[in-house]
Amino acid sequence: MLIDRLMFDPAVQDAAADFARETGAPRAAVMEEVARYAREIVPAFNAYLYFRVGYWLAKRVATLLYRVRLGYADEDGFRRIDPKSTVVFVMNHRSNMDYVLVAFLAAEKAALSYAVGEWARVWPLQQLIRAMGAYFVRRNSGSPVYRKVLERYVQMATEGGVSQAVYPEGGLSRDGRLRPPRFGLIDYMVKSFDPAGERDLVFIPVGLNYDRVLEDRSLLRKIDERSEARRKASGVATALGFAFRNFVLMARGRWHRFGYACVNFGTPISMRAYVAASGVDFRHLATEARKDAVEYLVTHLMEAVGRVVPVLPVSLVAAALLRDPDRRFSELELKAAAEALLARGAHFYVPRRDQDYAFAVGLRMLTLRRLVEFEDGLYAARGGDLAVLSYYANAIDHLLPDEARGAETLREMPAEPRRAASVG
Predict the structure, then answer these.
(1) Could you give the CA distance from residue 269 to residue 87 in angstroms, rounded to a whole number?
(2) 41 Cβ neighbours under 8 A, 6+ residues apart
(3) Domains and CATH numbers, the chain
(4) CA-CA distance, 389 to 295, in Å (whole number)?
(5) Distance (Å, rounded) from C-alpha 334 to C-alpha 175?
């Protein structure tokens, strides 16, 4: 049983003994904590729930809310993956719908194990999520014992070939941009990776984007400088108001889906090939050198994710409007401005393979949401909603030509990780 393996793992036992000795806590009490952490973390995967109930539910919810599309996938790269490999999907985090969307699209290829935050530890959601293969992570836990239990679980799952999905950003993007990555879970995976072992470790970059993110205004409020209490109250009111308006539209037969939701799967990155090319074996690096090497790797992965983020109609039209937010555009002028922003190599999802239709869809959605004004045959960004327009434009800002990009961009790759002597 994995919980028992985790509890009696030598590294976990050593961490518990060190903690008991340093704090003076009874060893038995520390081991009770270890047992609680192990039961909390280890999923209770149920294949029937995942592939029957979970897949059906994810498909229904995703297709009810969005026109779901698989925009691009590097099929040649997928075919080159060794079947024995452990596959890890590395994704940007736009919405809580990400879990549903990727689980639905990837279900025919693999059952994914997610790390989820403490928000999901409520009955009966907790039981369902654990049965679907997810594991809970206390993101801000300072306990060295907890971190060791989590580390060893991730390593056991990786060594056992469990397909996983991680969000290096650590949370939802609040302003629409890619966030600087965190390194914890990927560090756990690679620090014990043996390039000569039975399994390769393969990271697949996944880019997600939406014509409408359900939480957009709530996320923007989190970067507001008002008090936490006011933000929470406002966020609850916004969510309830949003739900009520949509129920009313459904009752009247006037409700429409929230545009396109698109997922792109980039070129797989083999850790065997990466280690061979870089000469870095994470197992034998001193702590600081390993942190540098992991930072370089994760930033490289996030840049790969950034390159496959889909350019959707709403994001493109929003970006065109915000190049000159005070200007009033004719439809033809706005279309020309949008086309000028398309960077070579960016993955623009073109519905119906009709670029004119794609542009019209994006403009119509922004107009229906009253983020764009239409008067006397001209379109303009609404002054009071520039933050929301920016949220959607920011999703593709890093893909735009340099002269059209905003001031803040995805941070540059750090310097090549420095080599260090082996430990011991």
Answers:
(1) 10
(2) 6, 135, 136, 137, 149, 150, 153
(3) 2-40 (no CATH), 43-210+261-307 (3.40.1130.10), 313-394 (1.10.3380.30)
(4) 32
(5) 24
Contact 273, 202 (CB under 8 A): no
pTM: 0.87
* Tens-place pLDDT, residues 413-424: 334 443 333 333
| Distance, CA of 394 to CA of 342 (rounded, Å) | 14
Q: Please give the sequence-ordered ranges of beta strands (E in DSSP) within 213-320, or none if there are none.
A: 260-265, 269-270
| 86-91 and 201-210 beta bridge pairing | parallel
Tokens encoding 351:
């519905």
pLDDT tens-digit map of 7-60: 999 999 999 999 999 999 999 999 999 999 998 888 877 676 777 777 888 888
Q: In one letter, which amino acid is 14?
A: D
* Count of positions (residues) in the chain: 424
Cα-based distances in Å from 232 to 53, 212, 217, 222: 33, 21, 12, 9
CA 409 vs. chain centroid, Å, equals: 18
